[in-house]
């Protein structure tokens, strides 16, 4: 119950989701959905909302704790919504690319996949009704390579090394040794796998 303490015990998941959100905001490509942390925080919110309902009718101490829980719930919901909003913006921007790239589709949650497929279908329908039906069929395809917007993996990003990684190969043939806690500006592509496994963070 609330009177037993106000520790949420979900600090690790919150930190993971915060890092996933900042990485997502700064990475040129869509990253893998942080499923485990997201679902754990969803469960934490459900638990805390139950605590609030139970505590709101008890004594003054539990009412005060209920208020603290409500503040924590608001904070968690904000982080979740911001993370999802950042991902949805990318899904809309790169919808054709994501839809036709199996490896990228694997990075989406089930809900995001449903959104992607629905969004792509609506976009294509709109384009056809607006103008594509007026031009020759051979020009109507929307998924030709040159027409599909794809993320630029050579965009420069700001990187913080989370451990001593050693030399990283750059596209120009040079190398940059990444040292724990140091910050670097470099192309995204050479560190993409390090972002994915958490050895570096984007800032």
Please list the strands of the largest sheet in the order they lie side by side: 4-1-5
Determine the number of helices (DSSP H or I, runs of at least 4 residues).
7
Sequence of secondary-structure elements? HHHHHHEEEEHE
What is the assembly state of the chains in this entry? single chain
Quick one: biggest sheet?
Answer: 3 strands, antiparallel
The radius of gyration is 22 Å
Helix content: 40-55%
Mean pLDDT: 85
The separation of the N and C termini measures: 38 Å
Number of strands: 5
Q: Indicate the low-confidence ranges by residue numbers.
A: 1-8
In words, what does this structure look like?
The strands form two sheets. A three-stranded antiparallel sheet has the order 4-1-5. Strands 2-3 form a two-stranded antiparallel ribbon. The protein is 52% helix and 11% strand. The chain starts with 10 loop residues before the first helix and ends with a strand. Helix 1 crosses helix 2 (35-55), helix 1 (11-26) runs parallel beside helix 3 (60-93) and helix 2 runs antiparallel to helix 3 (60-93). It has 203 residues and is mostly helical. The protein has helices spanning 11-26, 35-55, 60-93, 95-99, 102-105, 110-130, 192-196; strands spanning 156-161, 166-169, 175-178, 183-187, 200-202. Strand 2 (166-169) and strand 3 (175-178) form a beta hairpin. The protein has seven helices and five strands, in the order H-H-H-H-H-H-E-E-E-E-H-E.
């Amino acid at each position: 119950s609330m009177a037993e303490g106000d520790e949420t015990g979900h600090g690790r998941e919150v930190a993971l989701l915060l890092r996933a959100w900042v990485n997502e905001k700064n990475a040129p490509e869509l990253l893998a959905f942080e499923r485990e942390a997201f679902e754990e925080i969803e469960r934490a919110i459900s638990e805390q909302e139950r605590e609030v309902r139970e505590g709101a009718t008890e004594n003054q101490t539990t009412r005060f704790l209920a208020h603290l829980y409500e503040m924590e719930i608001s904070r968690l919901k904000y982080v979740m919504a911001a993370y999802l909003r950042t991902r949805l913006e990318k899904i809309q921007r790169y919808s054709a690319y994501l839809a036709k790239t199996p490896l990228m589709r694997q990075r989406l949650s089930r809900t995001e996949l449903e959104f992607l497929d629905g969004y792509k279908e609506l976009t294509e329908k709109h384009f056809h009704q607006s103008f594509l039906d007026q031009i020759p069929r051979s020009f109507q395809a929307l998924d030709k390579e040159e027409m599909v917007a794809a993320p630029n993996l050579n965009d420069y990003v700001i990187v913080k090394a989370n451990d001593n990684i050693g030399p990283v190969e750059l596209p120009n043939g040079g190398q940059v040794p990444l040292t724990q806690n140091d910050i670097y500006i470099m192309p995204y592509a050479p560190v993409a796998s390090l972002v994915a496994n958490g050895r570096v963070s984007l800032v």
